[in-house]
Structure formats: C-alpha cells, structure tokens
Amino acid sequence: MDWSIGTFDWSLLATIFFGALSGYVASRILGGEGFGLLGNIVVGVIGGYLGSWIVRVAKIPLMPGFFGTLISSVGGAIILLFFIELIKSMQRTNSSRRKR
Q1: Quick check: is 1 in a domain?
Q2: Host domain of residue 57
Q3: Confidence band of 50 (pLDDT split at 50, 70, 90)
C-alpha cells in the first residue's frame, strides 16, 4: 500500500500512531499506566514487529486492515512487556541475593 501524498511519507506517521496506540493498550491490559507517549511508541513499534512476525510464522489468520494490524501489534506488545517484566523480576531477585 502506498501511503505517500506528495513528498510526505505517511507510513512513518501510521507506524508512530499504531505504536503509541498498541503500547498504551498493551500496558493497560497488563494493569499498568502506560510509559508516556515516547515509551508507548517504542513498546508498540517493537511489539508490532514482533506480533506481525509471530502471526506470519504461526500462520494465524487475522482480518486485514486496521483491526488485524492493531490486534497483532497489541499482542506483540503484550509479549514484549511480559518479557521486560520477567527480566526485571530476575534482576530484582539476583540483586536481593547479593545483599545477603
């Protein structure tokens, strides 16, 4: 799909929008307050790539368009946030063991 109008590339704006929305929705689903605009964009964009890769590799049928993209992006962001929290908890456990 060609999202360019004139010389402006709208796909970058769409990626940022989906990233912010996906990161925010994923953090709210997991019970967080979000990471601020920039944090939500980063989590959402990385999660979007992760989610679309998982959908493609696992051959999961999703509806095309906005909602299919949003579902895969939010799913990928949830997986990313799960692993971030897992790493944080492992670091907390290791640091509490060192203090003993």
Answers
A1: no
A2: 12-95
A3: very high
Helix (H, G, I), strand (E, B) or coil at 100: coil
Fill in the amino acid letter for 1.
M
Structural domain contains residue 6: no
Q: Cβ contacts of residue 3 below 8 Å, gap of 6+?
A: 9, 10, 11, 14
**Per the domain annotation, does 36 fall within a domain?**
yes
pLDDT digits (tens, 9 = 90+) for 1-16: 555 556 667 777 888 8
Q: How many domains does the chain divide into?
A: 1
- Span 69-91, pLDDT tens digits: 889 999 999 999 999 888 988 88
CA angle 41, 47, 73 (to 5 degrees): 90
SS3 5: strand
